[in-house]
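Title: Prediction job returns without error message
Component: structure pipeline
Severity: low
Priority: P3
Assignee: unassigned

Description:
Job completed but the reporter wants confirmation the result is attached to the right record. Sequence as submitted:
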Amino acid sequence: RSYHVNNMAGLAGGNSSAQRLIQYVVIRGDLQKALSWPLGAVITQACHAATAAIHLYYSDQSTVDYLRELDSMHKVVLEAADETSLTNLAETLKAAGVDHKLWIEQPENIPTCLALKPYPKELVQKHFKKFKLLK
């Protein structure tokens, strides 16, 4: 069964699968600004984290629904100032029971990015209020 954001019958009936699912991705802004990583390397970190989160939570119903709508996936890419900001967010998400993947780049062994499994925006948006869109 396919679910669409504009499926008003599903929304009226309280079907949570009809809610817009969003995958949040948070990447360290200092990778490019202070550490001079090339843009491609920074984008690669976001790709790694997003792919890993989908893989880890592949059987989760929200992930299944998100992938079912392949041509209308929604992601929000935000910026964490630095490693401390990113790891603090990961700890907050873990304490709140929010499923995510903190990507640790190897062989450097440094946290670079994190991605959530797909969630209805209203369930997790509060955790990202202090982060701005990556520019």
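Comment from assignee: result matches the submitted record. Confidence is low (pLDDT under 50) at residues 1-17.
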